[in-house]
Amino acid sequence: MTWTTNPETFESKMLPHLNAAYTLARWITGNGQDAEEAVQDAYVRALRFFQDFRGDDGRAWLLQIVRNTCYTHLRKKAPHLLDTSFDEELHIEKCSAGTPETIAIKNADAELIRKAIQELPLNYREILILRGFEGMSYAEMSKVLNEPLANIRSTLFRARQQLKKRLIEFSSPRSSKSVASCG
């Protein structure tokens, strides 16, 4: 393959999506090292099949490859992880402006949301990440997840409902766990 500055090259189409690829891989695999390995493998696969790429949406095409690669890694490494909730600490972006109080509130809110997302099933986590963090449209998510548009809408709805339920549980003074332990 010849590397040129042509706007249709692999670099110009795929490298801008490196952060999105890592973010998705990080949430699916559960740790940075596995995510880096999956993204690297996905980029190698994307490069190998780039001549077959015919679309305008490089991000959706690449993220579909990243997702498939992550699932392949998970199946090989620990098949039971595909059905369990995610419990590893994630990097939280530091706030760059504001008073210590506002920074603490923002970090607490981000931590609460992160914790709630971590407890969701994998399919809910990935759809929330694609929509919320990557800002993908329903059509793009349909391509990445290889699901019909109707399934995307219903899964996203259920994921949001579960996230809302978790956030309410976390913020209520008496969580369901404490109520259950009382008798």
Give descriptors for this structure:
single chain; 183 residues; mainly alpha; disordered C terminus
Structure description:
The protein has a single domain (10-175), classed as PhyR, sigma-like (SL) domain (Butyryl-CoA Dehydrogenase, subunit A, domain 3), CATH 1.20.140. It has helices spanning 10-14, 18-29, 32-48, 58-77, 100-118, 122-133, 138-145, 149-171, 176-181. The protein is globular, with a radius of gyration of 19 Å. The model is unreliable at 1-7, 83-97 and 175-183 (pLDDT under 50). The N and C termini lie far apart (68 Å). It is built from 9 helices and no strands. It is mostly helical and 183 residues long.
List the helices and strands and how they pair.
Layout: H1 10-14, H2 18-29, H3 32-48, H4 58-77, H5 100-118, H6 122-133, H7 138-145, H8 149-171, H9 176-181
- Percent helix among the residues? 55-70%
* CATH fold field value: Butyryl-CoA Dehydrogenase, subunit A, domain 3
Q: Helix/strand/pairing class, anyone?
A: mainly alpha
Order of helices and strands: HHHHHHHHH
- The CATH homologous superfamily is termed PhyR, sigma-like (SL) domain
Strand % is under 5%
Given this structure, which CATH class is correct? Mainly Alpha
Tally of DSSP β-strands: 0
Computed Rg: 19 Å
Characterize the overall form.
globular
